[in-house]
Amino acid sequence: MANKNLKVDLNEPDQLQTMTERLLEYIMERKTYFIAAGSVILGAIIIVLGVYLYSMNYESNAEEVYAKAFNTYSFADVNNGMESDALKNAVVLYEELGRDYPRSDAAALSFYNLGNIFFNIGEMDKAIEAYKSFIKKSPRNSVLTSLAYYGLGYCYEKKDDYAQSLESFRQSDENLKGKHFKAINYSNIARIYEKMDEPEKALEYYRKVLEYTEDPFMNVLVKGKIAALG
To answer: Exposed e or buried b for every residue in 80-96, given b needs 16+ CB within 10 A?
Structure first.
């Protein structure tokens, strides 16, 4: 009985072989379509790989320029050479980075550092432009975005543009983390309200400073302000 079944099985077509033959026939009948589809898929893979490699190289080159600029800036800052050749070279490199690699993460950071440099050397208009360029490129919820608004607030205050300064400090407050930064920012807002001759608003924010500050010296100064305004 077993041998009879075996004989029948051997005489039947092999299912795998039959399926393979049918598949080959199907492909041969539609070979033009399959060649075209394969070309499209291969082309897409090449494009994706090319974009990835270009992006990797692009970011790598940008980071190399940023590292050079940052080291130059750090050297100038450490040596208190805010008017030194090292600082000027750092500015040139940061500007080059923003111009040549505008879509890179390093370019965004370069604008933030340029804002700090220009503020320190008293070039407020350039500092404002740099901070705004950074804000356009950075995530809204980034701490550095808040610090860039913080820098803008000081720049506008230097220019006696108190309305813009106040708005910048308010924007900064949205994403600042930590009691220390909150206390300083509320102090900034209170100071601007004082300059705008709005003592009640100034008092409101000086009281907020007391809620956040852990600095005894600031605590004394703010209480003196509250007493004077009250």
So the answer is: eeeeeebbebbbebbee
